[in-house]
Amino acid sequence: MTIHTSGLTRHFGATEVLNGVDLDLGPGIHGLLGRNGVGKSTLLRIVAGQLKPTSGTVEVFGQRPFDNARVMDNTCLTGVDTAYPGWWSAADVIKGARLRYRTWDQAIADNLIADFALDAALSTRYEKLSRGQRAMVSIVIGLASGTELLLLDEPYVGLDTHNTSVFYRHLLPQADSGRTIVMATHHIDDAAKVLDSAVILGRDGVVVKQCVPEDADRYAVAGPELVPIDDAPRHARAAKFDDLIEHVLEVS
Ligand SMILES: Nc1ncnc2c1ncn2[C@@H]1O[C@H](COP(=O)(O)OP(=O)(O)OP(=O)(O)O)[C@@H](O)[C@H]1O
C-alpha cells in the first residue's frame, strides 16, 4: 500500500475536520470526493507531510510523512490553489519543480506544455495567470514530477473541454506506470471516466465509502432514484459510476 491511515483525525482548534479516517490506497487513480469543507485538502496535506495529524496513524511508503524527506521527495502535492511565488514567471515555477524532484521527466513537461499551448503564458508572472493557466501549470508539475505518489487538489478547475481531454490523455499512462494518484475534485462526471476507485469523505469527517466502477453494475437509475438492479422498473437505465458517486455523496 502506498497510503495507509487508521483512525486519522485532524482538528483546527474547536473545529473537528477529520474524525477517524481509515484508508488504504495503492497504485492507480483514486478520486477523493466530498462536499465543500469536509477536509479533502486537509487530508492531502497530511498525506503529503505538510500537516501533522491530531491523532491516529498515517503512513506513506510505510513511514510517517510529516516533515519526512524520504516521503516528501517522492510525493508531489499540487493544484490550482498551490501557493507558488506569485512574482515568479510560470516558466520559473516549473523550473523550480524540476530542481525539486530528482524523478522529473522533462519530456512529459515539454509534451504537456505543447499540447496545452501554454508556451505563450510561460513568461507571465504566476499571479497574473488565469485559473485555467494555473491549473495547467500545476498539471505539468504534477505529471512531470515523476514522484511515486501524486496528489492533485482540484486539477480541473478552470480547464476547458479541450484541455480537460489533454489532461486525461497524459494522466492515464502515468497511472499505468505504477504511480499512485489521488485526485480531489468536484468534477464527478469527468473524473468517473478515469478513476479506479472513488473515496467519499462524509460531512462527519470519516470515509463513507470507497467504491469501484464495477459497483455501479448492481444499480439502475429510475427517475431521480438509484435502485438495486433486481428491483428496477422496466424503464430504468443501467447506472454508471458517476451515478453511484452522486448517490453516495447525496446521502453522505
Ligand atoms: N489552517 C487551518 N486553520 C483553521 N481551519 C482550517 C485550516 N485549514 C482548513 N481548515 C478548515 O478545515 C475545513 C476543511 O477544509 P478543507 O480545505 O480541507 O476542505 P475541502 O474538503 O478541501 O473543501 P473544498 O471542497 O471546499 O475545497 C474547513 O472548515 C476549513 O475552514
Automatic annotation (TrEMBL):
GO-annotated molecular function: ATP binding; ATP hydrolysis activity
Origin superkingdom: Bacteria
UniProt cross-references to PROSITE patterns, sorted A to Z: ABC_TRANSPORTER_2
UniProt-listed Gene3D superfamilies: P-loop containing nucleotide triphosphate hydrolases
Entry keyword set: ATP-binding, Nucleotide-binding
Domain (ABC transporter) ranges: 3-229
Keyword RNA-binding attributed: no
Protein name: ABC transporter ATP-binding protein
Annotated organism of origin: Corynebacterium lujinxingii
